[in-house]
Amino acid sequence: QVRFDHMQQHCGEHMLSYAFYKLFGAHNVGFHMSADMVGIDLDKEVDWQQALQAERFTNREIQEDRPITTKLVPAEEAPKMNLRKFNDKLTGILRIVSVEGSDSCTCCGTHPTSSGMVGLVKIFKVEKHKEGSRVSFLCGREALERVEQYMLAALDASNLLSIKETELPDGVARLQQEKKELSERLTECTGKLLEYRIAEMQAHPTATKAGHKKFVFLEPDMMPKEAKALAKRLGEIPESFSAIFYRNGERLNYMFLATDGAELSCQQVIRTVNEAFGGRGGGRPESCQGSAACPEDWQAKAEALMSVL
Ligand SMILES: [Zn+2]
After folding, report:
1. I need a surface site. Which of 15, 46, 53, 236 has the fewest CB within 10 A?
2. How much distance in Å is there from the Cα of 289 to the middle of ligand 1?
3. 210-236 burial, b if ≥16 CB within 10 A, otherwise e?
4. How far is the CA of 108 from the centre of ligand 1 (A)?
């Protein structure tokens, strides 16, 4: 089975290479066999339409079940034989493999007795490579199995979205658009919510020892992006000191801000906080940030630290 699979890939490679050569004058200049795909490098760039054209051409020659023959020929006769691939440095007796009325090239590999045994050829990828293209494909049983896999994946995805398989790209694009809109809406709502909380805090203000406004946020679940937006907003309130503690996964993050006239050094504050939580961080007198592993009682601890400022 492995041997037969390999023969299908190998012979399919001959035939597909011939199609690219015959239809577009592109030569096979490299061959790869990765764990899950066979690849050929062409010395000329081809696009998907051309690749599909070559694929159809090859599948037709497979279905025509053309006889495949090998012939031993002296090297000096080879140039006259119209070979697709020929190395003029070769000497002695050459082994020529021919698909009737189609590809002829020198090869020492094993081939089926007729092209029908290749089964089918299916191209899965066309990429730009150096000055040409890399075309990845499979033949025979392996091609069919890969198509089955992709078909089932497409079927599952289309069932999830309740659309036809051919509509999947549109469906995914629509989901992305919806996600983008929701995310924007969420950012907007979070911003509004924070505005309310700031307004409420200002209505019932707490003060620093020096008598300036003090805002302390203890957020059990906040994204760094949101914390940054909140800090920006708090930074617009004059004569204020603000502290934002927020938990993000396993980490406790903290930011401190002192606006003009707050008479408090954030560097001093963060030094105390770093010490209390075993964290790291620093910055400038008017703004600092840091983080630590998040302990269970972080809220009480942070509140106590901020209450003495
Ligand atoms: Zn061969």
Report:
1. 236
2. 65
3. eebbbbbbbbeebeeebbeebbeebee
4. 6
- CB of 78 closer than 8 Å to CB of 86: yes
CA of 115 to the centre of ligand 1 (A): 12
Token pair listed for 256: 């401190």
Residue 262 has a pLDDT of 83
Q: What is the mean pLDDT of residues 116-124?
A: 98
Give the distance (Å) from ligand 1 centre to CA of residue 117.
14
Quote the ligand 1 centre to 32 CA distance (angstroms): 14
Domains defined for the chain, CATH in brackets: 2-147 (3.30.980.10), 194-307 (3.10.310.40)
By the CB criterion, residues less than 5 angstroms from ion ligand 1 are: 107, 109
Find the 105 Cα to ligand 1 centroid distance in Å: 8
> What confidence tier does 34 reach under pLDDT thresholds 50, 70, 90?
confident
Write the pLDDT tens digit of every residue in 69-90.
Answer: 999 999 988 888 889 977 778 8
